[in-house]
Amino acid sequence: MLYGAEHVRRYVETDGREGHDWRGAQVLILTTTGRRTGQQRSTPLIYGQAGDDYTVVASMGGAPEHPQWYRNLVADPTVRVQVKGDVFTAEARTATEEEKARLWPEMARIWPDYDEYQAKTDRSIPLVILRRV
């Protein structure tokens, strides 16, 4: 089963032929700049689409803290995204409460565990909108 760094490596090497379709969902690769190290960090994430924008969920399985990739993009919202063979620069931003109310049900339809993750934590799990620049 693909996960973590191996998932990223195989996805990138095959332009998503391996790793885009994962456990009934679709995955993109999000690359952020480390807020302390300045190094590029790539993460495979389940995504949804709203128009031309992509949506990802900063769930970290319902952990009490935000994932590192989310903290990185808050510090530097210019990110790289790969969807299959399409690699592009995007601006990342946290969805507003109104956007989240509209987009969360769609993301929970794509990956039903998101509702469980939200129930496990006191933090409001952010949705992130990725817009190609």
Describe what you observe in this structure.
This protein is of the alpha+beta class and 133 residues long. It has helices at 4-13, 68-75, 97-110, 113-120, and strands at residues 21-22, 25-33, 40-46, 48-50, 53-57, 78-83, 86-94, 127-132. The chain has one domain: Roll (Pnp Oxidase, Chain A), CATH 2.30.110.10. Strands 1, 2, 3, 4, 5, 6, 7 and 8 form an eight-stranded antiparallel β-sheet that branches. Strand 2 and strand 3 form a beta hairpin. The radius of gyration is 14 Å and the shape is globular. The model has no long low-confidence stretch (mean pLDDT 96).
Mean pLDDT: 96
The multimeric state of the shown protein is: single chain
Q: SSE string, helix = H, strand = E?
A: HEEEEEHEEHHE
How much of the sequence lies in strands comes to 35-45%
Count of individual domains? 1
CATH uppermost class: Mainly Beta
Look up the CATH topology. Answer: Pnp Oxidase, Chain A
- Computed CA radius of gyration, to the nearest angstrom: 14 Å
Query: CA-to-CA gap between the ends?
Result: 33 Å
Classify the helix fraction into a percent range.
25-40%
Instruction: Give the number of DSSP strands.
Output: 8
- Using the 3D structure, state the CATH architecture: Roll
Please identify the structural class as seen in this structure. Answer: alpha+beta
Fourth CATH level, the homologous superfamily:
Electron Transport, Fmn-binding Protein, Chain A
Largest sheet: 8 strands, antiparallel
InterPro entries: F420H2_quin_Rdtase (IPR004378), Split_barrel_FMN-bd (IPR012349)
Family: Belongs to the F420H(2)-dependent quinone reductase family.
Catalytic activity: oxidized coenzyme F420-(gamma-L-Glu)(n) + a quinol + H(+) = reduced coenzyme F420-(gamma-L-Glu)(n) + a quinone
GO molecular function, one term: oxidoreductase activity
